[in-house]
Structure formats: structure tokens, C-alpha cells
Amino acid sequence: MSIQSPVRKSIETGIEKSLLACALVSIATTAGIIWVLTSESFAFFRHVSPVEFLTGTRWAPLLEPKSFSIWPLLWGTLMVAFGALIVAIPIGLGAAIYLSEYAPAWVRHAGKPILEVLAGIPTVVYGYFALTFITPYILRPLLPQTEVFNAASAAIAVGIMIVPTVSSLCDDALRAVPRTLREAGYALSATPLEVSTRIVLPAAMSGVVAAILLALARAIGETMAVALAAGMTPRLTWNPLESVQTMTGYIVQVSLGDTPAGTIEYQTIFAVGMTLFFITLTINLVAQRVLARFREVYE
């Protein structure tokens, strides 16, 4: 034992240092991304006023006269993201409640992997699905004024795409609720629906909220599906049947174009990326606060 102990200790020390190195690589990568976004964004804001960037209503950095207001891109992003949540939350949460509370064991074992297969489909496929099926065969027969590229089609496609995220995480949260709570509800003559909606769901609310916020973050960061389905027309509109452009869609448009590096047009992608970074950071901070609040209530 005395001979093996130093060897074991050295192995554990090596593992600990390897894990530390992995953590430092993650931190360094994040710091590098922040540095690139910040440096290029400062170069952008030397030419464009932050007031114009945050208060204007027109985004046209590639056209004359140029305009650099982020709001059309931000509005298109939020329209698609929250529209996707309207689609994904009922379907994903309903599927999670069924799988965790009602489904037989064989349905549960078969249904969850099938749902998670949706997460493995390339996002560009969702974009073409929205463009070639959702718009011409679902939206246009119901609403003939629907444009070829529109926010509603992109929201539906992204909503279907994030259903596995919502359903899988919600299912895990619902299963983590102690069975004694369910048995206590049935002992008080509660129906299965009452146990599911009034006992299990409130007890798992922290996990449900986390799943929704994670799905929202993924919907905001989605690129190819919205670039193909929503179009590339930055505008402030309340009509989801019209073409819009998201922040990620604009980054794709400029990154794949012939915009020379170092120009003000090229620097716009970093300003947009920095805005997207702050939005994601805000969502994560809100998620942490919400989860902490729910833990205080239910623990």
C-alpha cells in the first residue's frame, strides 16, 4: 500500500492538472472571443455613434445612404425567437409531462430517443423545410398574403428544432421530483392531471424555467434556418408574414460576401456579435437569478 500510494497520488495530481488545463483553455477561449469582439466593436464605434446604433430605426450599412441602427435586426431576432417559444413550449412541455407521468415504460424508452433525433438534424435542413413546405403548404393556403421569406415560417421551423431541448430537459426535471410527492397527492384523492399540474410541475419549475431559457438562447443564436426562412430584409414590422433579418442572418450575409476586412461594413459584424453576446449573457444571468429564487421557494 505504501508503494502504490505515491503512484496513485501522482496520477491524481496529473488528472487534477489536466482538468485545470481544460478549464483554463475554456476561459482563454472565452477571453479571446471577448477581446476580438471588443476591439473590433470599439473600432466600429469610432465611426458610428452609439446613440445612432441604439436609437435609430434603419439598418443599411451596405447601401447608400448608410444607416447603423441595430433595432431592425434585434426586432427580427426577438420576433423569431419568441415565436419559436410559442411553438416549442406547449409541444415540448406536453411531451415531457406525458413521458414522465403517463406513458408506459416502452413508450417512454422509445419516445424520448425519437424526440432527440430532431436535435441531430442539421439546421440548414430546417431552413429548407420552412422554405419549401411550411410557407407554401401551411401558411400560404391559410394566409395568401404571406411572403416567400417570412418570420412566421422561421419561427415555426426553429420552434420544431428546439422541441427536443425543451422536452428532454423538462422530462429530466419532472423525473427528479420525489415520488413521495406524487403518492401524497394520490393519497389525498387527487387525479393524475392534478398531480401533474399542481404538484409535480410546480416542484420542477426551476428545471422547466432553465429548459425554456436554454431553448430561448438557442433560438436567438440560430443562424442557417432563420437566414434561409426569414430572409435578409431588416425592417421594423409587427407582421410576422413579412421578411425580416436576424442578427445571425446578417453576420452570415456579410461573412459570405465580398466585404473587405477593416472597413466599416466589415466591422458591423463584430458590433452585432457583441450585441448578441450581451443578450446571451443577460439571459444567463436572468436564468441564474430565477433558478436561485425557485430553489429558495421549494427547498
Task: Walk me through what this model shows.
- The protein is mostly helical and about 300 residues long.
- The protein contains twelve helices and two strands, in the order H-H-E-E-H-H-H-H-H-H-H-H-H-H.
- Strands 1-2 form a two-stranded antiparallel sheet.
- Helix 3 packs antiparallel against helix 9 (about 205-220).
- The model has no long low-confidence stretch (mean pLDDT about 90).
Layout of strands and helices, then pairs:
Layout: H1 4-45, H2 50-55, E1 59-60, E2 67-68, H3 71-102, H4 105-117, H5 123-142, H6 151-175, H7 179-187, H8 192-203, H9 205-221, H10 224-229, H11 247-255, H12 264-298
Number of helices: 12
Number of strands: 2
Tally of separate domains: 2
Instruction: Supply the helix-strand structural class.
Output: mainly alpha
Instruction: Name the average pLDDT.
Output: 88
User: Under CATH, the topology of the largest domain is which?
Assistant: MetI-like fold
**End-to-end distance:** 43 Å
Which percent bin holds the helix content? over 70%
CATH class descriptor of the largest domain: Mainly Alpha
Order of helices and strands: HHEEHHHHHHHHHH
Low-confidence stretches: none
CATH fourth-tier homologous superfamily of the largest domain: MetI-like
Q: Main beta sheet: strand number and arrangement? A: 2 strands, antiparallel
